[in-house]
Write a structure and sequence with these properties.
Oligomer: heterodimer
Number of helices of chain A: 0
Distance between the termini of chain A: 40 Å
Shape of chain A: globular
Order of helices and strands of chain B: EEEEEEEEEEE
Helix content of chain A: under 10%
Largest sheet of chain B: 7 strands, mixed
Chain lengths: ~120, ~120
Amino acid sequence: AQSVSQHNHHVILSEAASLELGCNYSYGGTVNLFWYVQYPGQHLQLLLKYFSGDPLVKGIKGFEAEFIKSKFSFNLRKPSVQWSDTAEYFCAVNDGGSTLGRLYFGRGTQLTVWP
Amino acid sequence: EAGVVQSPRYKIIEKKQPVAFWCNPISGHNTLYWYRQNLGQGPELLIRYENEEAVDDSQLPKDRFSAERLKGVDSTLKIQPAELGDSAVYLCASSPPRGGAKNIQYFGAGTRLSVL
């Protein structure tokens, strides 16, 4: 089974600071990679995804992520955060094996942005 | 377009009582998922349906949990009897039938269960 590690459980930043959230997964085969975001009181929403092709993917609200296959990583970045980015961020992996369709989630990173 | 609809949003029950959660996926989405999210953790899959067939239920604790999706649209997840450790948020998700978009799962708001 897959395991997904998010190394930062809680990140606190001031507005305009740069953000990088780490995500590593364990599966060595073909994977689909996702970042989901959950704003306070709202449901999980897709932020961005990687299926194939350019390993640098861009998502909504200025977020981007880079897939580095050799490092089994899919880190999330944003050059300048805003107060409205305060939310919980989940990295998720979907592998192409027998558990096709199952998303494996990390435990999440709570991001707090101070105005 | 309506998203994934779940009800109730909150449920408080005493241990050993039964409880049921309902989910209506996005129209046209043939794949439906139930996840459980414990406090401080990411969601974990309980069961996945392709239409009315449960194709991945290996993580469902079958001694007390059951699920159904009789007509391949809405679904019910039941716990009987509930235990203290079942306190969690139960999430439903759905995905469309074809192509790369099939891998994108859309989540409902969840049902927060508290077992006392």
